[in-house]
Task: inverse folding
């Protein structure tokens, strides 16, 4: 339970301050625990980043599934509506996972966590849309929105949903 609370606080801190700025002392304060407790659960800053990313991954998939329709096309459109809400509320500066890779491009632990997250999202999109054959195309639309959000905002969602409908129409 404490590990999860710390991971939630780490996620919030990294989302707010990025990865380069917060020192371990600042992260300890953000988590409201002692340095010893923080290091007990996350023995390095990289481990703290991975913990935050793993926590965010679970939170994101749960967020997308909340009240999701079961119909393939409706579910796919719903995911992009939820993505818009997520970007507005939790990721106005873009995808936290991609920001982590940008900050630590050569760190194998962080790269592994991000790659696992992205692969699970790709599979999730295929399953929810009931079009596993289009999982990569849907994933590219999803990632495009995440990347373009800081620049395009709502227009990124609108364009992705239009492309999604065209893709599903052409391929049915």
Result:
């Amino acid at each position: 339970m404490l590990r999860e609370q710390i991971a939630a606080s780490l996620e919030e801190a990294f989302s707010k301050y990025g990865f380069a700025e917060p020192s371990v002392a600042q992260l300890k304060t953000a988590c409201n625990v002692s340095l010893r407790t923080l290091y007990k659960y996350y023995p390095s800053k990289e481990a703290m980043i991975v913990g935050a990313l793993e926590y965010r991954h679970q939170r994101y998939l749960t967020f997308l599934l909340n009240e999701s329709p079961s119909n393939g096309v409706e579910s796919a459109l719903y995911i992009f509506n939820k993505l818009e809400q997520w970007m507005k509320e939790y990721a106005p500066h873009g995808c936290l996972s991609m920001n982590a890779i940008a900050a630590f491009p050569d760190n194998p632990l962080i790269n592994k966590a991000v790659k696992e997250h992205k692969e699970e999202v790709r599979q999730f999109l295929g399953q929810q849309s009931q079009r596993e054959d289009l999982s990569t195309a849907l994933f590219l639309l999803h990632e495009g929105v995440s990347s373009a959000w800081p620049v395009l905002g709502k227009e990124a969602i609108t364009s992705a949903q239009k492309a999604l409908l065209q893709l599903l129409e052409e391929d049915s």
